[in-house]
Design goal:
This protein is mainly alpha-helical. The chain is 74% helix and 0% strand. It is built from ten helices and no strands. Helix 5 crosses helix 6.
Length: 303
């Protein structure tokens, strides 16, 4: 980062979060439904991500794919703002006055992990509401008395039935997922970005804008795939913890994964891999391109 300008990095991050939800939420809905229903011992089973998508479109229409998007927009905008802002400023602090264009893992990894740890406290409640809204579609076996009319109703009923700590159910899994995931994402993004610019540095200056967008798409997309490939089992555990109606259900993500592995093997731990990977590339590419363009428009230059 050549220079920092306080709030501007957070504004750019917020815009990146909005872009992520617009592009990625339908894939996320499919992933959550697969994780909830296909890991249960009985109930609705989906043959694949496409089967799940077709069921949602048939029974609920396009709006079914954006179920829970309201809380997701709020949560992701705030979370993304913090993630990109904290990452950028922490990385600059760790790098100090060192202006080496080559990515510095000793600055990138802890900066990404720290940003992930901080945002997990914001993200956990909004993701709990999002996931509970997503799994109560037409195919859900939830009794009508347990259904929610909207995100606020979901949050209020959760607090009423489970106490204030109920809204933070799955916090441990979220903390692990975000810390590891952000460290992997930013490491992949920074390295791919650096080496692509190295390969394309002799290209015509007239194409620089298109090259920047192309590099953003590839580096952001690959960063997203790497991130979710690393943390999907933790995400599966988080979904199960957050959507459980049993107050006494274990909140230990490792224990959850042990049970899933015993029942379904490694494949069970990666339930929802298809829609997650399909979502990861375009959603994270949109986030990075939006972030970099917003940074440029706000006058923050990147090396």
């Amino acid at each position: 980062m050549a220079e920092s300008s306080g709030y501007k990095e957070y504004v750019a991050g917020m815009l990146a979060g909005v872009a992520t939800v617009i592009v990625g939420h339908p894939f996320d809905t499919v992933k959550v439904k697969l994780q909830k229903h296909n890991t249960e011992t009985n109930g609705m089973k989906y043959k694949s991500g496409l089967h799940c998508t077709a069921r949602i479109l048939k029974t609920e229409g396009v709006k079914g794919l954006y179920r829970g998007a309201t809380s997701s927009f709020v949560g992701m905008a705030f979370e993304s703002s913090l993630a990109f802002g904290i990452y950028s400023q922490t990385k600059q602090l760790l790098q100090g006055e060192l202006h080496n264009e080559k990515p510095q893992p000793l600055a990138i990894v802890p900066s990404g992990a720290f940003a992930g740890a901080i945002i997990s406290f914001v993200l956990c409640p909004s993701e709990l509401v999002k996931c509970r809204m997503q799994v109560q579609g037409t195919d859900s076996f939830l009794p009508s008395a347990s259904r929610y009319s909207g995100p606020i109703d979901c949050a209020l009923k959760t607090v009423k039935n489970e106490g204030l700590t109920g809204i933070f159910r799955g916090g441990g899994a979220t903390l692990l997922r975000e810390s590891i995931g952000n460290a992997v994402f930013f490491s992949t993004y920074e390295h791919v970005r650096y080496y692509m610019h190295l390969l394309l540095r002799d290209a015509s200056s007239d194409l620089s804008h298109f090259i920047d967008v192309g590099v953003g798409i590839v580096s952001g997309g690959l960063g997203g795939i790497a991130c979710w490939s690393a943390v999907l089992p933790l995400d599966v555990a988080k979904t199960i913890i957050q959507t459980s109606s049993d107050k006494n259900h274990t909140r230990n993500p490792i224990r959850i994964l042990e049970l899933i592995y015993r029942r379904s093997g490694i494949r069970g731990c990666y339930t929802g891999l298809g829609p997650t990977i399909v979502r990861a590339f375009p959603a994270n590419a949109a986030a990075i391109v939006t972030w970099e363009l917003a940074m440029k428009m706000l006058g923050i230059k990147r090396e």
